[in-house]
Amino acid sequence: MIKTIFFDLDGVIIDSEPIHAKAKKLTLDEYGIDYPISLFDDFIGQTDEAFFKHVSETLDTERRPIDLLLQRKQKLFVELLPEMKFVDGFLFFHQKVKEKGLKTALVSSTSSYTFELIDKIFNISHLVDLLVTEKDTVYHKPHPAPYLKALQTLPASTETTIVIEDSPNGIISAKKAGCKVFALTTSFKAEKLTDADKIFHHYSALAMELENP
To answer: CA 138 to CA 189: how far, in whole Å?
Structure first.
């Protein structure tokens, strides 16, 4: 019996991955940093700090400070925010979840700064019972710490909790925490999400699963 649902943010609630990737790409382009095209997919589900640490240490020949790259990315991200939307079908699914009286949590490795910007537009903090973002744990996805924090704080049981994720790193994090994971193919193709318990291409199919678990 499902009693709790944990949502990732990027690619699960908000279709923000393309905006994050665009802001990162523009940042690297402005500083003339060469990168492989797979770089952005490789870091989906990880923090901006992890992304730019990798860039600074392995790709940037001038070894620019991570904070410099982060600040530029964040400025570009703010400029691109008007392009962002809810993931198709999320609001319908969320309504079904609330009608069933299920507890909910947002569990994301996004920074507090970024979340606050998004929350001003989408009011996500009012859609869930608990928020777990980067500031709430020392370790981040794919480490299980974010989901363990949510389980402990809400509190919730792994036996009655479903996690909705869209990335391999997020799936690893949730599975290591002992949770059952439903994956959405919003950011990765299904063959990259095979560690999830079930894979869905749209929230409408996931809503049917909720009706007939």
So the answer is: 30
Same domain, residue pair 73 and 98: no
Q: For CA atoms 151, 153, 155, 161, give the dihedral sign.
A: negative
The structure tokens 């199919």 sit at 205
pLDDT in tens, the chain (213 residues): 899 999 999 999 999 889 999 999 999 999 999 999 999 988 887 889 999 999 999 999 999 999 999 999 999 999 999 999 999 999 999 999 999 999 999 999 888 888 998 999 999 999 999 999 999 999 999 999 999 999 999 999 999 999 999 999 999 999 999 999 999 999 999 999 999 999 999 999 999 988 876
CATH number for the domain spanning 102: value is: 3.40.50.1000
pTM of the model: 0.85
- For residues 83 and 31, give the distance between their C-alpha atoms in angstroms, rounded to a whole number: 24
